[in-house]
């Protein structure tokens, strides 16, 4: 589905060898909590694919997260970044736990990793189970991954007039990052146009209030679309203010196709959309950059169920497929999607978040048996 994206990125940013490459080195970064339980699921699926489609995988275990911080003083060790940069074409990232109160020296390694590795897009397909209740939902949320409020420039100071504390955060939107995210979102829409005969891009913003920052996001998205009409002209183009977007997303999710959003809105919309398809445990994502693609389930470290062996592995298994898709291995990815869809459609072996009694490994085994 995203082959052209991988190829296009390849052409301009050095993924060329990856797109054609059959022998892949994959970094495995479980992180904290259920990350440690779901990343092995992704690994087992790739191991099962070994020698199918001519692919072969080599794995490297890597570390990041709160436990790593407690043990080494660094949430994202230099070695992890170095190995990813120098040796890996792809990686799977589980989840990291963040303490609820500020811990000196700690900040989320996934945000740093996205920035370090130039992973400018977070692509999050949200799809309901075929044959399930209600109208089918099948959308892709394309979240800008490097800026907005997540640049984490914050300061706290005392307001002179009242003598009380005030905290400010900088929201950054740049032309370059917006052009990049609009282009990949339109390329994804184009691919969907080719396979389904129609596609719509919805640009999410709040430019009625934030006329400069979100105004720029909106303006550049439109410009990318308008100035490439020969390529994207058959894609329908919509804009939607983020609050009414949430309302529409919950009332008529089947109306959405490809959504592009600045970092924070994209984060919130995709967790919300996950609720529409049953569980955070089934929603995957891929962090896409010029040099590497990192598959990452949308969920966090889920401390409430960690260590019980009941985390839903499907978000990670789908993230593994998404990673392969962006590396140009669409056939292998489709095999994985089909196996997962079959498991969900049959519904006999599912984890408690979907109302079942199965363990993580039982779901993995079921998916493997369908591959
Ligand atoms: P969460 O996604 O970890 O959990 C939310 C709810 O969904 C919980 O009830 C959890 O049990 C359930 N859930 C999530 N994934 C599941 C799965 N695979 N199978 C079954 N149930 C699942 O979000 P929460 O509780 O807000 O955050 C927990 C920790 O994770 C925090 O420290 C947070 O900072 C971190 N986090 C990390 C992310 C990352 O590493 N990318 C993303 C989101 C949160
Ligand atoms: Mg999130």
UniProtKB/TrEMBL annotation:
<keyword id="KW-0560">Oxidoreductase</keyword>
<dbReference type="GO" id="GO:0047046">
    <property type="term" value="F:homoisocitrate dehydrogenase activity"/>
</dbReference>
<feature type="domain" description="Isopropylmalate dehydrogenase-like">
    <location>
        <begin position="25"/>
        <end position="367"/>
    </location>
</feature>
<keyword id="KW-0460">Magnesium</keyword>
<dbReference type="GO" id="GO:0004449">
    <property type="term" value="F:isocitrate dehydrogenase (NAD+) activity"/>
</dbReference>
<keyword id="KW-0520">NAD</keyword>
<dbReference type="GO" id="GO:0000287">
    <property type="term" value="F:magnesium ion binding"/>
</dbReference>
<comment type="pathway">
    <text>Amino-acid biosynthesis; L-lysine biosynthesis via AAA pathway; L-alpha-aminoadipate from 2-oxoglutarate: step 4/5.</text>
</comment>
<dbReference type="GO" id="GO:0006102">
    <property type="term" value="P:isocitrate metabolic process"/>
</dbReference>
<dbReference type="GO" id="GO:0005739">
    <property type="term" value="C:mitochondrion"/>
</dbReference>
<dbReference type="Pfam" id="PF00180">
    <property type="entry name" value="Iso_dh"/>
</dbReference>
<dbReference type="GO" id="GO:0006099">
    <property type="term" value="P:tricarboxylic acid cycle"/>
</dbReference>
<keyword id="KW-0457">Lysine biosynthesis</keyword>
<keyword id="KW-0479">Metal-binding</keyword>
<protein>
    <recommendedName>
        <fullName>homoisocitrate dehydrogenase</fullName>
        <ecNumber>1.1.1.87</ecNumber>
    </recommendedName>
</protein>
<dbReference type="InterPro" id="IPR019818">
    <property type="entry name" value="IsoCit/isopropylmalate_DH_CS"/>
</dbReference>
<comment type="similarity">
    <text>Belongs to the isocitrate and isopropylmalate dehydrogenases family.</text>
</comment>
<dbReference type="GO" id="GO:0051287">
    <property type="term" value="F:NAD binding"/>
</dbReference>
<dbReference type="InterPro" id="IPR024084">
    <property type="entry name" value="IsoPropMal-DH-like_dom"/>
</dbReference>
<keyword id="KW-0028">Amino-acid biosynthesis</keyword>
<keyword id="KW-0597">Phosphoprotein</keyword>
<dbReference type="GO" id="GO:0009085">
    <property type="term" value="P:lysine biosynthetic process"/>
</dbReference>
